[in-house]
Design a protein that fits this description.
41% strand, Fibronectin type-III domain-containing protein, Ig-like_fold, FN3_sf, six-stranded antiparallel beta sheet, single chain, mainly beta, five-stranded antiparallel beta sheet, 109 strands, FN3_dom
């Protein structure tokens, strides 16, 4: 332990200085110091609280040399002590000298007096290497220098070298290596040049000023990266003056030299010797970049339910400059969907860690991650690495279903959490009492804990007739809890407790007392009645009622009594009077005890016969006991009072006893009918309403009703309750109910009533099984819901909330999809009472052949290079796995689908090149169209970087640049396309740009010898409010038909100035009628990302205007109102019955009234008519565009049924109710001639028929006849009959005489006559 020292003043200064700089050298390393500030005024000194700081660690000091000992053989034991001042918390290690120095060994004699020594870091450095030094200190170098060229003073010698590497513990020495210097070397050194051909190939050429046929050559290749252990690589070439070096590392700088060697004696041409060589000057060449390789999969660690820590390393072979890293994620074991890879991160090349906290992560789910490293030449993709997220608190815990089973217990049932987010280990039931004071939170009590395989339990320990809140807690194996909402339940009633004592108030008469009492401290329900009993043998109460006061009479003055005050809810106790003179009776009988009466007449007993008199009474007067005869009276009603008396008769007369009262016992009720079960008015599927009637014969005092549902525990009800609503039932389930009525004499159970609850939507619908069948079809199947809650009448399959299938099958093939698109599919199952939709599942269609590959962009970057950039196909229809770039029909580049750029080098200046880019996915390819061409520059400086772009607003971009790496002359100017600047200007803020547009910028810089252009750089300006939004277009989708919708469409703003996030569509209705004129209030009817909307909430034949509002991330713009559009026509509404004018016997004028709403232009008005008493259909008699129509050719005195039909467009017609009209009467017509039925000498019998058209009510009929003609005179016409009959007899005629006759019929409007008939008597 370290004891603190006392405070020392380290600074004293003026009052206006508030800082102090302590000197680091005066403080000890890794030591904590406390500081306080003291302020002094005239009154005194005040001090602050202390602040502490710990100094950083430093190197240890006071390291003593080790002690050593030897056993004399081949080992030394070293012992040492810790430093006296460690200056840190823990000594990380104790260093020893480096080991494995100069392994492997590499030396290269350059000529007669120079030799190259090359080395790498020791095999075991045992700490940080501070310096290297060859033996005899010919060189002392930095720890990052791995070569030395030694110059010796005498040629042809053998030199010995030993390398030393020093760390903090001292020098580690290598073995001694011999170097034999050449005896003789060629007089000249080769001059070498190198050309890089590819990422792994360099071509080397060299020259020698002397004749070359005498010498042999070898190429010396040395990697400039000192970390590589291949220090030297010798490639003999014989006498050739060129060599292609292969198997090199991409993007690596090589030091290449050529040695010319003297051939050994007897060597033939082409045989190389590495002795006696003269090594030429080196040239440095860097191989081209290549796609990286060897990307290891990332290291994953789940840190939470929605957090994964991801770490990765640089690829083992970067093969270029790493531009950045991408991370992709997918589900390890997706169900029913194609796994979707999501890019979750793209970062710079110096970051090797990322924490994935995507909200889409699901707890306790296995995911796979891969890392992609990218360079300008391509990518390296690692294998997938897997990790499972940790468990998290369950969510979607539904409230329990509760049923009170007694006064102290509740049954709870529940479902598993919708999202368990782990393995559910147990369920916990918690409850809290609902108090009267909402400001005092009640304590939460754990009722019960059950294992996860149970979904129902009964918990007790509750108070009777008390309301509780109950909830379910799902606990997973990680101890995390998910809580449901509270649900209310109330326990059943129980018998009261803590009943108060009676208070007794004496009555002055001494024969009664007033009993009073308080309510029970714990009523445990609703108090139905209070019962008072007499002590000891009491079974029937002497008082029952709700009033808490009773006058107890029949007491004897100056006598001590003891009473019990008992309560029962709803149980009823019975008692009899203590001094009763009656024995126990059967429910329907009573034992009459009669007196044994005797007389002493003749010294013998004379038994008297017993006569019974019975009457039903209501008052109770009890006489004392006597010695009596026994007699059993049967056939009595239970629970009924009867009075008896005894009459004793002798020959001299009789005598009667007083009346004695007795009450029969209670018996089970009789005549209880089955309960009436009805459905609730709200059509709830989870409840039934049960009611019942009292028994026809109670046979006692009703105590309770028991309602039995199936085999469940019966519900208990007091005798005054005849109705109960049973809740918590299952939909579409048969339930059986019976009612039991109980008295003190027993119980009687009714017949059962069976009722089925209403249907309900299915309780849970599992997601469908969706499998991609091809690029445009999805095979979909599903299972029926486990709990159907009714009869499934149809299934509906929704794709992206659009109905794609409806029917009763459990599988279907969905078609007409786009390739390689992710769709959300949900299943909806419907009963007659509703539908339930599953959670959606996502599925991706299979890939299709890509299309829409636009031509690449060509950008000449120099005399020898062209930059080729391209965009992905407009319809990739899958994952683009590679791109091919073809130059003049020749394949020059293959890259994966993430690269969209290729720099084509080694081109010929001033030459035109044609390029085509081909995109591939797993199903096929598409070529860019049309081929594009570009010509390289003649000459240019080199190394001009693309400008740096920084958007400053929606219309300004800050452009900055640097001078080229190789100016190749005096820079004259810079041209930023399309601006020109002086050679000293390196930035410019460019204005007048369009918001949220991609702008490509590149530089051109020129010298006197030519110009060079940089690569292009792209940047997008910031967003600005959209402008120039045209009003929407509104059309009726189907002409000449009933159309209650309007199709509204619009185009994006001409200047979106960003990404349009959504559109608001407004509508207003134009009113123009006799009652009002103007426009209704502007209403928002849609918030959408689409540019079309179907408005199906319009009034037919009404004028509307629409307005659209577009919004991006910076602001909004609103269009003007669209031109008014008239909604489609519809059949008229409210066509009234017609009215009638100008009614005659054969015509009527029909007038059609205007409908309540025309819903269009009334084009046709049709009149339908029929006779009212006819069974024929109404026929169309006339039509037109008028409102009044005359109907002619009618029958007089006939009732017609007339209706009006109005039509707007085509078949859009509405027929109104019928009106009734009766034509006026007219003279009859169509009277046929009479028929002679019988003729005699003086009589003639005639008959006739009714007129075919009576045209009213026939009031009378007449028969006219003519007498025999008198010579030269017209015979007179005589009315032979007048009346309503259709026959008559003409009498008193002249025999053998011809008579003419006819019939006339009359109504109130006239008459008609028949033709004349003739007959001869």
């Amino acid at each position: 332990d370290v004891c603190p020292t006392s405070y020392v003043a380290v600074y004293t200064g003026p009052s206006d200085v508030f800082s102090f700089l302590g000197k680091y050298g005066e403080l000890d390393a890794y030591t904590t110091y406390e500081y306080k500030v003291m302020a002094e005024n005239k009154i005194g000194v005040g001090e602050s609280s202390s602040s502490d700081i710990t100094m950083p660690q430093s190197r240890p000091s006071g390291v003593m040399p080790p002690d050593w000992s030897s056993d004399g053989r081949d080992a030394i034991t070293l012992l040492w002590q810790p430093p006296t001042q460690p200056n840190g918390t823990i000594l990380l290690d104790f260093q020893s000298k480096p080991e494995g120095v100069w392994v492997p060994t590499a030396t290269l004699p350059l000529d007669l007096i120079h030799v190259d020594l090359l080395w790498t870091e020791p095999l075991r450095p045992n700490g940080a290497i501070q310096e290297y030094s060859p033996w005899q200190l010919v060189f002392v170098g930095q720890s990052d220098v791995f070569n030395y060229t030694d110059t010796i003073s005498y040629p042809r010698a053998k030199i010995q070298y030993q390398l030393g590497a020093m760390n903090g513990a001292g020098f580690g020495l290598s073995e001694i290596h011999d170097v034999q210097m050449p005896i003789v070397v060629p007089p000249a050194r080769p001059v070498v040049s190198a050309t890089v051909l590819s990422p792994t190939v360099i071509r080397v050429e060299w020259e020698l000023s002397l004749p070359t046929s005498e010498y042999n050559y070898s190429v010396v290749v040395q990697q400039s990266d000192s970390g590589n252990r291949e220090l030297l690589r010798l490639i003999p070439t014989g006498s050739d003056m060129t060599q292609v070096i292969e198997d090199l590392t991409p993007h690596t700088t090589y030091r290449i030299r050529v040695m010319a060697c003297m051939p050994l004696s007897g060597d033939s041409e082409g045989t190389n010797s590495t002795e006696n060589c003269n090594v030429g000057q080196s040239t440095l060449s860097e191989t081209f970049s290549a796609p990286p390789a060897g990307q290891d999969k990332p290291t994953l660690k789940a840190t939470g339910g929605r957090a994964v820590d991801i770490k990765w390393k640089e690829p083992t072979h970067p093969n270029g400059v790493i531009q950045g890293y991408f991370l992709h994620r997918k589900l390890a074991n997706p169900s029913n969907i194609v796994p979707i890879e999501k890019r979750i991160y793209s970062g710079n090349p110096t970051t090797f860690n990322y924490i994935d906290t995507d909200p889409e992560l699901i707890p306790f789910t296995e995911y796979k991650y891969k890392v992609t490293s990218t360079t300008n030449e391509g990518n390296a993709v690692s294998d997938w690495a897997s990790v499972s997220t940790k468990q998290d608190a369950p969510t979607g815990v539904s409230p329990p279903i509760l049923q009170a089973v007694s006064a102290f217990a509740v049954n709870a049932s529940w479902d598993a959490p919708l999202y368990p987010n782990g393995v559910i280990a147990s369920y916990r039931i918690e409850h809290r009492e609902i108090g009267d004071d909402p400001t005092i939170p009640p304590p939460i009590v754990t009722s019960l804990t059950v294992p996860s395989d149970l979904k129902a339990a009964t918990f007790s320990g509750l108070r009777p007739f008390t309301a509780y809140h109950v909830r379910i807690l799902a606990v997973n194996q990680a101890g995390m809890e998910g809580r449901s909402e509270w649900r209310r339940v109330k326990t059943l009633s129980a018998a009261p407790s803590e009943v108060a004592e009676l208070s007794v108030e004496k009555n002055p008469s001494g024969r009664s007392v007033i009993l009073t009492w308080e309510e029970p401290a714990l009523p445990n329900g609703e108090i139905h009645e209070y019962n008072i009993y007499e002590p000891k043998e009491s079974e029937e109460p002497i008082y029952s009622g709700r009033v808490r006061q009773y006058e107890f009479r029949r007491l004897t003055p100056y006598t001590q009594y003891s009473l019990d005050d008992l309560f029962s809810i709803p149980r009823i106790r019975r008692s009899i009077l203590e001094d009763s003179q009656f024995n126990t009776l059967l429910p329907n009988s009573a034992t009459i005890q009669t007196f044994d009466i005797s007389s002493n007449f003749a010294d013998s007993y004379d038994y008297i016969s017993v006569n019974r008199v019975r009457r039903q009474i209501t008052d109770s007067n009890v006489d004392g006991d006597h010695e009596v005869y026994n007699y059993t009276d049967s056939g009595l009603r239970p629970f009924t009072r009867y009075q008896y008396k005894i009459r004793t008769s002798t020959a001299a007369g009789h005598v009667d006893s007083n009346w004695v009262t007795v009450e029969t016992h209670q018996a089970p009720p009789e005549g209880i009918s089955a309960p009436v079960v009805t459905h609730p008015h709200d059509r709830s599927s989870a409840s039934l309403e049960i009611s019942w009637y009292p028994p026809q014969h109670v046979n006692g005092e009703m105590q309770i009703y028991k309602l039995q549902r199936g085999n469940s525990t019966p519900f208990i009800f007091p005798p005054d309750q005849l109705r109960y609503t049973d809740v918590g039932l299952q939909p579409y389930t048969d339930y059986e109910y019976s009612i039991t009525a109980c008295t003190a004499g027993g119980c009687t159970t009714s017949d059962t009533t069976v009722t089925r609850t209403y249907e309900e939507a299915p309780q849970f619908v599992a997601p469908p099984n969706v499998v991609a069948f091809n690029s445009t079809s999805l095979q979909t199947s599903w299972e029926s819901p486990g709990t159907q809650n009714g009869i499934i009448v149809s299934y509906k399959v929704f794709v992206d909330n659009e109905l794609r299938y409806q029917g009763n099958e459990t599988e279907t093939m969905l078609t007409r999809f786009l390739p390689f698109r992710v769709y959300s599919v949900a299943l909806e199952a419907c009963t007659n009472s509703g539908c339930r939709r599953s959670i959606p599942v996502q599925v991706r269609t299979l890939e299709g052949i890509p299309s829409g590959m636009s031509a690449p962009d060509l950008h000449v970057t120099g005399a020898h290079s062209i930059e080729v950039t391209w965009h992905a196909p407009s319809e990739p229809n899958g994952n683009i796995i590679r791109y091919e770039v073809r130059r003049n029909g020749e394949l020059v580049s293959i890259s994966d689908g993430l690269i969209n750029r290729y720099d084509d080098y080694e081109l010929i200046p001033g030459t035109e090149y044609t390029y085509v880019v081909i995109a591939y996915n797993s199903r096929g390819s598409v070529s860019s169209e049309p081929p594009v061409s570009e010509t390289t520059y003649q000459s240019a400086p080199a190394g001009l970087d693309a400008p740096t772009l920084t958007p400053t607003s929606g219309r300004y971009m800050l452009v900055e640049w640097t001078s080229p790496v190789n100016p190749n002359g005096v820079i004259l100017n810079y041209t930023l396309y399309s601006y020109e600047f002086s050679a000293e200007t390196f930035s410019f803020e460019l204005g007048g740009l369009e918001p949220y547009e991609e702008y490509y910028f590149w530089l051109q810089t020129c010298t006197l010898l030519g110009c060079v252009m940089s690569e292009r750089n792209m940047k997008r300006t910031l967003e600005d409010s959209p402008t120039n939004l045209n009003p929407p277009s509104v059309v009726i989708p189907q002409q000449n038909q009933v159309s209650m919708v309007l199709e509204v469409s619009w185009t994006p703003p001409l200047n979106t100035n960003g990404v349009i996030r959504y559109y608001w569509l407004f509508r207003r209705r134009i009113i123009d009628n006799d009652l009002a004129s103007g426009m209704l209030e502007r209403r928002l009817i849609a918030n959408t990302t689409e540019t079309t909307y179907t408005d199906d909430n319009v009034v037919p034949y009404s004028m509307y205007e629409y307005q659209v509002n577009a919004r991006n991330g910076a602001g909004e713009t609103t269009s003007s109102w669209s031109p008014p559009v008239l909604s489609g026509e519809a059949p008229p509404n409210g066509v009234p019955a017609p009215t009638f004018q100008d009614v005659t016997a054969r015509s009527v004028r029909v007038t059609a009234q205007d409908p309540e709403r025309e819903n269009g232009e009334i084009r046709t008005v049709a009149i339908y008519m029929k006779q009212n008493d006819s069974d024929d259909q109404m026929a169309r008699v006339t039509s037109g565009s008028r409102q009044a129509y005359p109907l002619v050719g009618l029958q007089p005195a006939t009732t017609y049924r007339v209706a009006v039909e109005m039509c707007t467009l085509g078949s859009m017609c509405t027929r109104g109710p019928s009106g009734f009209v009766t034509t006026l009467s007219a003279p009859p017509s169509g009277q046929s001639a009479p028929t002679v039925d019988k003729v005699t000498a003086v009589n003639m019998s005639l008959s006739w028929r009714e007129p075919t058209h009576p045209n009213g009510r026939i009031s009378r009929r007449g028969c006219r006849d003519t007498y025999p003609p008198v010579e030269c005179h017209v015979s007179p016409t005589v009315v032979g009959y007048s009346g309503l009959s259709t026959s008559t007899v003409l009498r008193n005629l002249v025999p053998y005489t011809r008579y003419d006759f006819k019939v006339n019929s009359y109504n109130e409007f006239g008459s008609t006559g028949s033709s004349w008939g003739t007959a001869i008597t």
